[in-house]
Amino acid sequence: ARGDAYTWRMGEPTPGIAVRDVAPEERERFLDVHLAGFNQRVTPEERARELASLEDPTYRLFAAYLDGELIATALDFASELTLPDGGAGPMLCLTWVAVLPTHRRRGALGALLADHHARARGREVPVSGLYATGSAIYGRHGYGVATEDAALRIETAHARLVRGGSTPVRIVEAGAARAEIDAAWERARHLRAGGIARPAAETSFLLAEHKGFAALAGPDGTDGYALY
């Protein structure tokens, strides 16, 4: 948060918009608004899986309401951020931010972020980390791009495997590799500034969505992993 300057840049939301935590009986509506905000459709199985993940107490579900109607969603959870000196500090992670297309440009997004930042300040957490699909939206709210996804397509006819080294690799069903995946992530996040602690709920969601295999490296499978 940026104090008075931050408040001035955000402006005031439309009268009638309020932010509060989502009640258990509102999770269905919460998911519907989130999916509509991203123009997504899911199968009944995927819907059941996502609703189950939202029940995890790791996550705080909160939403913006206009005259009592849920119109925008967000979710945050506690984590840690690896610092340049090798230590780690607390961070509050923010994701699942979406606003109904029919209710945009009314201040709902700003109200959600203000609530999230107030919670971070109240818990004396100095950093908020946002996972977002549209980085251009959030600069005015104090966020900048920290990392990006990259998609690579390899023509196997013109590629070859690099030989060398003696690190063993084995392939297993991803769901059966939960302990090794968590251990590899935990080791890796301390090796570079910007590494993030991943709660168990996040690994559960990742593996529930994954339909492929896991390749585990190292004698005990915890030197590294790849999901594919």
Question: What's the β-strand tally?
Answer: 8
- How does the helix and strand content classify structurally? alpha+beta
* H and E string: HEHHEEEHEEHHEE
Assign an overall shape.
globular
Order of strands across the widest beta sheet? 1-2-3-4-5
Proportion of beta-strand residues: 15-25%
Distance between the termini: 38 Å
User: Gyration radius, to the nearest Å?
Assistant: 20 Å
Give a summary of the structure in a few sentences:
The protein has 228 residues and is an alpha+beta fold. It is built from six helices and eight strands.
Describe this entry's structure for a reader:
The protein is α+β, with helices and mostly antiparallel strands. 29% of the residues lie in helices and 25% in strands. It contains six helices and eight strands. Strand 7 and strand 8 form a beta hairpin. Helix 3 packs antiparallel against helix 6. The longest helix is centred in the middle third of the chain and has 15 residues.
Q: What's the helix and strand layout?
A:
Blueprint: H1 3-10, E1 17-21, H2 27-37, H3 44-54, E2 60-66, E3 69-82, E4 88-99, H4 108-122, E5 127-130, E6 169-173, H5 178-189, H6 200-209, E7 213-217, E8 224-227
Parallel strand pairs: 4-5
Antiparallel strand pairs: 1-2, 2-3, 3-4, 6-7, 7-8
Helix pairs in contact: 3-6
Features:
single chain, three-stranded antiparallel beta sheet, 8 strands, disordered N terminus, five-stranded mixed beta sheet, alpha+beta
